[in-house]
Design goal:
9 strands, alpha/beta, two-stranded antiparallel sheet
Protein backbone atom coordinates (compact mmCIF):
# COMPACT_ATOMS: atom_id res chain seq x y z
CA UNK A 1 0.00 0.00 0.00
CA UNK A 2 1.42 3.32 -1.13
CA UNK A 3 0.57 6.95 -0.54
CA UNK A 4 -0.99 8.72 -3.51
CA UNK A 5 1.47 10.84 -5.52
CA UNK A 6 -0.65 13.04 -7.79
CA UNK A 7 0.81 14.44 -10.98
CA UNK A 8 1.65 18.13 -10.74
CA UNK A 9 1.03 21.24 -12.85
CA UNK A 10 3.12 21.44 -16.00
CA UNK A 11 3.22 17.65 -16.39
CA UNK A 12 1.68 16.04 -19.45
CA UNK A 13 -1.54 14.23 -18.64
CA UNK A 14 -0.99 10.47 -18.81
CA UNK A 15 -2.37 8.41 -21.65
CA UNK A 16 -5.73 6.97 -20.72
CA UNK A 17 -8.77 5.51 -22.39
CA UNK A 18 -12.07 4.67 -20.73
CA UNK A 19 -15.74 4.22 -21.44
CA UNK A 20 -18.41 6.34 -19.81
CA UNK A 21 -21.74 5.17 -18.38
CA UNK A 22 -23.18 4.80 -21.90
CA UNK A 23 -20.20 3.11 -23.53
CA UNK A 24 -18.77 6.24 -25.18
CA UNK A 25 -14.98 6.22 -25.22
CA UNK A 26 -12.87 9.08 -23.91
CA UNK A 27 -9.09 9.23 -24.12
CA UNK A 28 -6.26 11.69 -23.77
CA UNK A 29 -5.92 11.63 -27.56
CA UNK A 30 -9.63 12.27 -28.22
CA UNK A 31 -9.57 15.19 -25.76
CA UNK A 32 -6.55 16.98 -27.27
CA UNK A 33 -7.62 20.48 -28.21
CA UNK A 34 -10.14 20.57 -25.35
CA UNK A 35 -9.77 21.88 -21.84
CA UNK A 36 -11.24 19.59 -19.21
CA UNK A 37 -11.51 18.95 -15.51
CA UNK A 38 -10.96 15.30 -14.68
CA UNK A 39 -12.11 14.71 -11.14
CA UNK A 40 -11.57 11.52 -9.19
CA UNK A 41 -14.00 10.49 -6.49
CA UNK A 42 -14.24 7.37 -4.30
CA UNK A 43 -17.75 6.01 -4.86
CA UNK A 44 -21.08 6.70 -6.59
CA UNK A 45 -24.09 7.60 -4.45
CA UNK A 46 -22.15 8.39 -1.27
CA UNK A 47 -22.68 11.67 0.61
CA UNK A 48 -19.40 13.44 -0.18
CA UNK A 49 -19.31 12.28 -3.78
CA UNK A 50 -22.93 13.32 -4.32
CA UNK A 51 -22.20 16.76 -2.81
CA UNK A 52 -19.24 17.25 -5.15
CA UNK A 53 -21.07 16.01 -8.27
CA UNK A 54 -24.13 18.15 -7.55
CA UNK A 55 -21.98 21.24 -6.92
CA UNK A 56 -20.37 20.70 -10.34
CA UNK A 57 -23.80 20.12 -11.87
CA UNK A 58 -25.15 23.35 -10.41
CA UNK A 59 -22.47 25.47 -12.13
CA UNK A 60 -22.07 23.29 -15.23
CA UNK A 61 -23.22 26.08 -17.57
CA UNK A 62 -20.34 28.24 -16.32
CA UNK A 63 -17.88 25.48 -17.21
CA UNK A 64 -19.39 25.36 -20.71
CA UNK A 65 -18.99 29.16 -21.01
CA UNK A 66 -15.29 28.64 -20.23
CA UNK A 67 -15.06 25.86 -22.84
CA UNK A 68 -14.23 23.31 -20.16
CA UNK A 69 -15.53 19.75 -20.11
CA UNK A 70 -16.08 17.86 -16.85
CA UNK A 71 -15.22 14.17 -16.56
CA UNK A 72 -15.81 12.27 -13.34
CA UNK A 73 -13.83 9.08 -12.66
CA UNK A 74 -14.34 6.34 -10.08
CA UNK A 75 -13.85 2.59 -9.90
CA UNK A 76 -17.60 1.96 -10.06
CA UNK A 77 -19.12 0.10 -13.01
CA UNK A 78 -21.21 1.67 -15.80
CA UNK A 79 -24.61 0.74 -14.30
CA UNK A 80 -23.67 2.41 -11.02
CA UNK A 81 -22.56 5.53 -12.90
CA UNK A 82 -25.84 5.58 -14.87
CA UNK A 83 -27.84 5.33 -11.62
CA UNK A 84 -25.76 8.14 -10.05
CA UNK A 85 -26.29 10.36 -13.11
CA UNK A 86 -30.03 9.67 -13.30
CA UNK A 87 -30.63 10.17 -9.58
CA UNK A 88 -28.77 13.51 -9.52
CA UNK A 89 -29.41 14.80 -13.08
CA UNK A 90 -25.69 15.05 -13.79
CA UNK A 91 -24.99 16.63 -17.21
CA UNK A 92 -21.44 15.31 -17.59
CA UNK A 93 -20.01 11.82 -18.19
CA UNK A 94 -18.59 9.50 -15.55
CA UNK A 95 -15.74 7.29 -16.69
CA UNK A 96 -15.42 3.67 -15.63
CA UNK A 97 -12.05 2.83 -14.05
CA UNK A 98 -12.78 -0.55 -12.46
CA UNK A 99 -9.15 -1.65 -12.62
CA UNK A 100 -8.07 1.78 -11.24
CA UNK A 101 -5.56 2.19 -14.08
CA UNK A 102 -6.49 5.83 -14.69
CA UNK A 103 -6.41 6.60 -10.96
CA UNK A 104 -2.96 5.03 -10.76
CA UNK A 105 -1.73 6.91 -13.85
CA UNK A 106 -2.78 10.25 -12.32
CA UNK A 107 -1.35 9.23 -8.92
CA UNK A 108 -4.60 9.34 -6.94
CA UNK A 109 -4.70 5.64 -6.00
CA UNK A 110 -3.25 4.81 -2.62
CA UNK A 111 -3.67 3.92 1.01
CA UNK A 112 -6.75 5.25 2.79
CA UNK A 113 -8.06 4.96 6.32
CA UNK A 114 -11.75 4.92 7.11
CA UNK A 115 -13.54 3.78 10.27
CA UNK A 116 -10.48 1.98 11.58
CA UNK A 117 -9.78 0.14 8.33
CA UNK A 118 -6.78 0.64 6.06
CA UNK A 119 -7.18 -0.11 2.35
CA UNK A 120 -6.19 1.09 -1.12
CA UNK A 121 -8.62 3.35 -2.92
CA UNK A 122 -9.23 6.48 -4.96
CA UNK A 123 -8.41 9.78 -3.28
CA UNK A 124 -10.65 12.76 -4.01
CA UNK A 125 -8.44 14.86 -6.28
CA UNK A 126 -8.85 16.73 -9.57
CA UNK A 127 -6.80 17.93 -12.48
CA UNK A 128 -7.46 20.80 -14.85
CA UNK A 129 -6.04 19.81 -18.23
CA UNK A 130 -5.27 22.37 -20.94
CA UNK A 131 -5.91 22.08 -24.68
CA UNK A 132 -2.37 20.82 -25.31
CA UNK A 133 -2.80 17.92 -22.86
CA UNK A 134 -0.78 19.37 -19.97
CA UNK A 135 -1.95 19.65 -16.39
CA UNK A 136 -2.73 23.30 -15.70
CA UNK A 137 -3.58 22.76 -12.05
CA UNK A 138 -3.68 19.89 -9.58
CA UNK A 139 -6.26 19.96 -6.79
CA UNK A 140 -5.03 17.71 -4.00
CA UNK A 141 -7.24 18.83 -1.13
CA UNK A 142 -10.73 18.84 -2.59
CA UNK A 143 -13.63 19.96 -0.43
CA UNK A 144 -16.74 18.53 -2.14
CA UNK A 145 -19.03 21.52 -1.60
CA UNK A 146 -16.43 24.15 -2.58
CA UNK A 147 -14.50 22.49 -5.38
CA UNK A 148 -16.68 23.55 -8.34
CA UNK A 149 -16.39 27.26 -7.49
CA UNK A 150 -12.67 26.91 -6.79
CA UNK A 151 -12.10 25.55 -10.31
CA UNK A 152 -14.34 28.20 -11.89
CA UNK A 153 -12.35 30.92 -10.13
CA UNK A 154 -9.16 29.43 -11.57
CA UNK A 155 -10.70 29.38 -15.04
CA UNK A 156 -11.34 33.13 -14.79
CA UNK A 157 -7.64 33.90 -14.20
Amino acid sequence: MNKPTPLQSGTKAPDFSALDQDGKEYSKTSLLGSRYLIYFYPRDLTPGCTTEACALRDVYENFIKHDTLILGVSTDHAKSHRKFIDKNSLPFPLLVDEDHAIAEAFGVWGVKKFMGRTFDGVHRMSFLIGEEGKIVKTYEKVKPAEHALQVLNDLKL
